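We were asked to recover a plausible sequence for a given structure. The inputs and outputs are reproduced exactly as logged, with field labels preserved.

PROBLEM: sequence recovery
POSITIONS: 184
GIVEN STRUCTURE:
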């Protein structure tokens, strides 16, 4: 296991694994209303079984080298996470994503955590492109994409259904040759 510090405030990035299902569920309960506005994760993780199943899905994806999941802890409490929803080494393309609970908003935790995993994908795994898919009305997530140095490539109209509503999604991406590193 690794622990990666995310700054001087006591925040850490760590793997998030099936054995942490109870902690993850408690976190989702705190994040449900806020994160659920734009993210389907709180709708999937509603009980211990759903929590464990979601975490196991990402453990399986990691074993298959097709996805990864990390938690963000602040002072020992799980407050959010980042992930590679998809990870395709053969094509050199990954899709990154994130979520937070309200207590962690506005501290730069997601940006620092994403910089860490994107830097790893480019420098250690040889990925060529990292994408960010975001609803057109999700200003906080679009701001993260900008801070990560991503370029808005277009809008995918009516591309995602969230809670019965079809959403337009922006596609943002950064290429390995554009990447400035974790400290940019």
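RECOVERED SEQUENCE:
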């Amino acid at each position: 296991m690794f622990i990666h510090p995310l700054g001087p405030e006591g925040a850490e990035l760590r793997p998030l694994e099936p054995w942490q299902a109870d902690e993850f569920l408690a976190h989702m309960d705190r994040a449900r209303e806020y994160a659920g506005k734009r993210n389907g994760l709180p709708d999937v993780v509603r009980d211990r079984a759903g929590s464990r199943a979601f975490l196991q899905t990402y453990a399986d994806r990691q074993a298959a080298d097709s996805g990864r999941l990390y938690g963000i802890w602040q002072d020992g409490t799980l407050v959010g996470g980042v992930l590679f929803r998809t990870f395709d080494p053969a094509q050199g393309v990954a899709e990154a994503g994130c979520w937070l609970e309200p207590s962690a908003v506005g501290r730069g935790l997601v940006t620092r955590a994403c910089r860490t995993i994107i830097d790893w994908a480019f420098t250690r795994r040889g990925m060529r492109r990292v994408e960010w898919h975001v609803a057109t009305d999700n200003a906080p997530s679009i701001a993260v994409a900008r801070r990560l140095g991503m370029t808005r490539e277009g809008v995918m109209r009516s591309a995602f259904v969230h809670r019965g509503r079809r959403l337009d999604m922006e596609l943002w991406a950064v290429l390995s040759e554009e990447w400035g590193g974790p400290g940019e």
